[in-house]
Prior knowledge:
By secondary structure, the chain is mainly β. It is built from 1 helix and 8 strands, in the order H-E-E-E-E-E-E-E-E. The chain has one helix at 2-17; strands spanning 30-34, 51-54, 58-62, 76-81, 86-94, 99-111, 116-121, 129-135. It starts with a helix and ends with a strand.
Amino acid sequence: MKKLLLLTFLCGVLFVSCEDDSIDNSMLIGKWASVANAKDSDANAKDGALILYIDETDIEVQNGSWSYRPFTSDEYWYYYIDRDSVLHISHEEYDGEDYYTEYYELDLSFRDSYNTLTLWYKPTFSALRKYTFIRR
């Protein structure tokens, strides 16, 4: 019986001491520039690169274009990160008559002591897209 109690206690300590691996918003805050060569973490941001200015709740896009889907134009997105390190973004559009909201999910990860950000976007009808940014 004592062995069972000891084993239960040790298992409880192990589960309680596990750290939460989720990413909080503070790691994203700042200016991010897309890099010319996503495989080279030391690459400089290219001219006309996609720039993301991220604060606590918003992402401001600069140099948005169709090639950077879903960041197709210079606008603001609301965002949050869930426990699975998925970046949820939303943007409200007005088409002249009605407002509608676009929603997207992008997987994210960090490297180089949180100075390199990688986003993966999977459009419904095309291949997985990978965007790598460096902190500026």
